[in-house]
Batch of 2 targets.
Target 1
Amino acid sequence: MPHPRPGPRNLITDVRGLTVGHATDEAVRSGVTALLCPEGWVGAVDVRGGGPGIRESDVLRPENNFSRAHAITLSGGSVFGLGAADGVTTALSAAGHGIRLAAGSPAIPIVPGAVLHDLGNGGDKAWGLDPPYRALGMAAVAAAGEDFALGAVGAGRGAMAGLHKGGVGSASLDLDDGLVVGALVAVNPVGSVYMPGGETFWAWPFEIDDEFGGQSSRKGAPDPSVRATDPVPDDSKLAALGRFNAGANTTLAVVATTAALTTAEATRLAMMAQDGLARAIRPVHTPFDGDVVFALSSGAVEIGEGPARSLTIAKLGSAAADTLARAIARGVYSAR
């Protein structure tokens, strides 16, 4: 069996049917990233941060009766950024995407979303009664395609990873037999993506093809004296930036797969993918973060039944965690 490799783009759009668009406001130093699956894919969500900012997450719970999404929106702007999903919803509806509950009614897209806090980054936030995020959401839909930029763009424009510039990252993994896993992430945690010394990513063991600087091939094993449990430092710089306030930080992620999953199985995929955050950020899921992972299933590949199905889901979850860890490092590497 061949060793799993990234898809041709090494982006979440290697899961066919997905497109991604960014819209960035350089004056505000913020932006929006929209991931589109306008036919409506099975969706799920797992929230583990202590200060999340989310929209329409409950519709993706397995106990509810329409656990599908037509898009996922990630945005800067804290609570103001939740308006980005309004723009994405409007644009998709105008294009005829969504459910219809009555003849002649507008299409109703389901657009869950999550936001990160970037209000203290020095951009012009004096928007008064007209925050830019709804317009940015519509612009992100218009810009969506299979290829997209990584780094300080879209939802990652104003992001910080600890004291370093954060950003948007993505990666994919082809598991063969049509099974593909992809990840998209906006990286804005209080924790560090770097090991002590600020050069080596915590995610270095998972790197493929020098995708974030070739650390796995250049550095070899890290210094054994480095403690893997280093806590958040009592750092005056982080405190001065307000990073020790609940909700001031977060990592927002989407994982997607070609496998045909139920909502409960997609929830398990999101839960397992959270381990990717722990592999790439130390510490994570803190009281200061709003960490959220969405999961999407295209339904393109059937995965059987019984114990073999459960084993496949376990493999998908493991791959999703590794792929998300790689996406986090790629986002910060591209931003810097």
Target 2
Amino acid sequence: MIESLPLLGAGGHPAQGVDFTAVEIRTTGLRPGRVVELAAVRVHADGSIAGELSTLVDPGPGVPPGSALVHGITRGELDGAPSFGAVLGSLLNFCRGSVVVAHDLPFVAAFLGHEAARLGTGVPVLPGVGTLEAAQTAVRLPNYRLATVAHALGVPARPGPSALSGARTIAQLVVALFERHGFTFAAPPVLPALPRFATGPLRPREVAEPAEPGWMAEAVERVVTGRGGDAYLDLLAGVVADQHLSPDEVAALAVLATEVGWPEDRVRSTHERFVAAVREIAERDGVVTAAEARELRQVATALGVADAGDLRPTAGGKPTRVLVVGTTAAADRLRARVLAEGVQLAKKLTASVTHLAVDATVPANDPRPARAAELGAVVLDVRAAPMALGFEPPPAPPAPAPAGTSKLVGGRILMGVGLLLMFVVVLAMFGGTPLVAGIFFALFGIGALLGGWWLAEPAPR
């Protein structure tokens, strides 16, 4: 149903004039199964929103909706919602003339393709791009969860449990990637000529504003899963980000792990690895707050990790917390670098921010640099920040000139002066200069030659 388009850096076909349709889904599990919520946000290449579509999807009478822990959808909410077949026409009409975008494009394409195959009808192939794959090319991050990538690229929208909140984030993310990081299409996108499909009523659910992220939500952005990722670890990070994890929620996670074929010992080792990673993040800056210690113990207990280590709050001190302001690729790379170094990356200016980095897109009358200075934060230019934050060593001082270099240079200059003076004397003699004057200046030339030779002569070893 969706075919991935190859992307290039500079030199390909630009996205100017192209519409993108960001698609996000909520499903019954980690493997292709059933879609229970579908959302799409259409955005122009300049970032302006053209429209939104959102609906719950009933996978069938009595079919469990999957873990409400992940998407917050209950079976009761799906009763009376349209089926996938009833909403497919609306989705195709909405995507007409645009390039489909998803964060994890293969995952979304597999679910939508599976649902379309169940209908037994031919569905046109839509061109698509994945923001996860593009982000892996653009910036180096500890993990490439949607929330982490959005934070690194300065996208203000935060993905929440609903599919629409995720689609809104993806729409802003794809614009940032194409605008600031120079992505182009390897070939002009071929947009299929779609007929107008019949549509039916949709049932959108209310989108609650995501809660302000706490320390745990920020910490999981710095947990390393690598470029390949780890589906269960990513899911675990998303679940614990809200700081609340009950035994029932842990049991629901175990069911999801079973669906992808994970044995119990692998789930247990993943929980231990996750707790150890968060602990290392808490201790890395040398300051452990009471909230950090409390939240880590709560998560460790819920996950059944008995030994979370003796993590105790430390007195005094202030952990490094960096706010990067700007909309350039350099600002994106710095935000990514902060996360990759395990340092706290702030979303807004508060008294806890220790460093504010700004780029050239921040106007001179922006009040934040002055306010940051009032709060005691260090204000930096984006280009100087990596060194000031200790991510890069200061440049090495220039090496002193080897002993004898100045004498060698001085000697060669003196020899050159002597040769030039001798050449002038010869010309002057041919021009009729008196012999006595010629001899006088010739002696000066010979003296300069001999003195220069003595200075430039290497010292005996």
